[in-house]
Amino acid sequence: MGALARAVDQSALTAFELDFSLEGVRKRRLLQTSWDVRFETVEPVRSFSWRKYGRGFAGWYYSVTVRDHVGYESWLERDRLVLLDRDPQVTAIASQPFWLHWHDGVRKRRHAPDYFVRLADGHARVVDVRAEDDLDDDTRESFTATEHACRAVGWEFDWVGRPDPVFMANIRWLARYRRTRCGRPQAVADRLLEVFREPKGLWEGAVSVGDRLQVLPVLFHLLWSGALETDLVGSLMQTDSLVWTKGSR
């Protein structure tokens, strides 16, 4: 990093403030004195609500990663939350974790990122969700400022738009089977992993293990967890979709 970049990042430590709520107490601190707060444990800085005929659609999603409900304010945010929940590198997720305050030289500004994510290696990632065709100048400026603040304290910043529609449709289906109980009994899971060491059709492999009503939820849970794999991008899953055990193909 060059001297100018270091100076810019250093100035960000005092140019930004974070406003957050921890254990019911609202706090506002300079970025340089709050970067080490475990933001994956904070409460949302604003409520999740929706109005009739409004653009947003708020709700709560049960995350198996955090074993609790996590809020979202749109279907697009919900989809990203599902993807974060499936990511094995993600260990914790908090929605609307803080208000980022700064002055743009003309007026005071603030922005609440959509998610704060803790990764398995201990690093942090701040995620903003917005479709590219729904970005206005103010939003772009907010994302740029957020990225600047994140870089100053060593956090990743990720702006994400709409996921591939076929992939997302398949993931939404698998998310129905995300809970641990769907992967039981273990004997069925073990048998499926053995059967699909040789790639074969989804239906064919399920039938060879036993009663479909018992086997299919376990199969879909293994696809959710990544222990079994299939092409989730090329087409919607069908009974003849080729499935294989991870690492066997």
Mean of residue pLDDT values:
92
* Structural class designation: alpha+beta
Mind describing the biggest β-sheet? 4 strands, antiparallel
Question: What sort of overall outline do the alpha carbons produce when their principal axes are compared?
Answer: elongated
β-strand number = 13
List unreliable stretches of 5+ residues: 1-8
- In whole angstroms, the N-to-C terminal distance is 42 Å
Oligomeric form: single chain
Organism: Streptomyces camponoticapitis
Domain TnsA endonuclease N-terminal: 87-159
InterPro entries: TnsA-like, TnsA_N
Pfam families: Tn7_TnsA-like_N
Mind explaining what this structure looks like?
- With 249 residues, the protein is an alpha+beta fold.
- The chain starts with a helix and ends with a strand.
- The chain contains eight helices and 13 strands.
- It is 35% helix and 25% strand.
- Helix 3 crosses helix 5 and helix 6 crosses helix 7.
- The N terminus is likely disordered.
- A hairpin with a 4-residue loop joins strand 8 and strand 9.
- The radius of gyration is 21 Å and the shape is elongated.
- The chain folds into two domains: 158 residues, 3-Layer(aba) Sandwich (Trna Endonuclease, Chain: A, domain 1); 81 residues, no CATH class.
- Strands 2-1-6-7 form a four-stranded antiparallel β-sheet. Strands 5-8-9-10 form a four-stranded mixed β-sheet, sandwiched between helices.
